[in-house]
């Protein structure tokens, strides 16, 4: 029986878990109220349900994963769905607000409702806002982590996504071939072939980083059952106030309040 080949991404996975745990612990120690708010992606105050792209990215992750597992491994449709999945998790800026807001909390600039707003540009003629793409988001988080001395985290964001692959999918600039994924770079640059074993490694690296962030968020959210009351303030202009941080497992409700935590459906 042939020995199992080592996972080429194992060192990355180990580093990512260490770096994320360090980030979460530092943010929690700096300001627990802002830490909790950082785990609420696209937190903009009162808004109707069903408008949160961070939550939608998690649903998409589960749906893509389940569907891809159901398809034959030699299916070309499966490859195309994997490419769509890769682009979805690369472009999930709403989801990546969570680690970004964690870094802002570590920096002492938590409670930021628009963490990537500085990356938004305007069209020269129409004046319409142009949202940052995945490349800009990851470069921003890489630089931010480095400036905070979170060097492993900076490396993780640098290594997580392949910009050539992301761009090729976004611009339909690829060809599926027997030897791998051909990236044409039709508008200039050296064409590239990503062999299938390398593609699998890139795909797994990106997917696992997304899942690691999600797992850490779930662990820390669930730690607020039972609820915890702390003295904190939203900003420097607010007096210290008792805030209750809570997670209700019966409903999945997670949040903060200046009053008592919501009562679970069974009344306990």
Write the element-wise H/E pattern from the N-terminal end onward.
HHHHHEEHHHEEEHEEE
Give the number of domains. Answer: 2
The poorly predicted ranges are none
| Count of helical stretches | 9
* Overall pLDDT: 92
Return Rg in Å.
21 Å
What is the SS-derived class?
Answer: alpha+beta
Give a description of the structure:
This protein is of the alpha+beta class and 268 residues long. The protein folds into two domains: 10-223, no CATH class; 224-268, no CATH class. The protein is 50% helix and 13% strand. The chain has a three-stranded antiparallel beta sheet with strand order 3-4-5. Helix 1 crosses helix 2, helix 3 (53-70) packs antiparallel against helix 4 and helix 4 (76-90) crosses helix 9. The mean pLDDT is 92.
Could you write a compact summary of the structure shown?
This protein is an alpha+beta fold and 268 residues long. The protein is 50% helix and 13% strand.
Give the arrangement of secondary structure elements.
Elements: H1 10-30, H2 32-38, H3 53-70, H4 76-90, H5 93-106, E1 121-122, E2 129-130, H6 134-147, H7 151-160, H8 163-170, E3 174-177, E4 180-183, E5 192-195, H9 196-222, E6 228-232, E7 241-248, E8 253-257
Antiparallel strand pairs: 1-2, 3-4, 4-5, 6-7, 7-8
């Amino acid at each position: 029986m042939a020995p199992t080949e080592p996972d080429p991404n194992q060192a990355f996975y180990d580093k990512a878990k260490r770096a994320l745990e360090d980030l979460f612990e530092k943010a929690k120690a700096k300001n627990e109220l802002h830490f909790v708010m950082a785990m609420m992606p696209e937190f903009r105050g009162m808004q109707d349900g069903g408008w949160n792209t961070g939550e939608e990215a998690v649903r998409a992750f589960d749906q893509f994963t389940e569907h891809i597992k159901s398809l034959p491994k030699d299916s070309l449709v499966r490859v195309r769905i994997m490419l769509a999945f890769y682009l979805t998790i690369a472009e999930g800026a709403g989801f990546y607000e969570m680690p970004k807001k964690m870094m802002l909390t570590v920096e002492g600039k938590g409670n930021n409702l628009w963490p990537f707003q500085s990356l938004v540009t305007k069209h020269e003629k129409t004046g319409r806002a142009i949202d940052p793409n995945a490349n800009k988001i990851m470069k921003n988080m890489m630089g931010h982590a480095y400036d905070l001395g979170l060097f492993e985290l900076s490396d993780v964001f640098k290594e997580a996504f392949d910009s050539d692959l992301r761009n090729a999918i976004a611009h339909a600039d690829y060809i599926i071939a027997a030897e791998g994924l051909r990236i044409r770079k039709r508008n200039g640059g050296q064409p590239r072939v990503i062999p299938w074993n390398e593609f699998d490694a890139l795909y797994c690296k990106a997917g696992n980083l997304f899942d690691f962030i999600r797992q850490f968020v779930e662990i820390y959210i669930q730690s607020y059952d039972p609820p915890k009351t702390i003295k904190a303030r939203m900003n420097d202009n607010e007096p210290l106030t008792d805030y209750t941080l809570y997670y209700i497992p019966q409903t999945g409700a997670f949040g903060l309040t200046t009053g008592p935590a919501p009562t679970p459906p069974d009344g306990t």
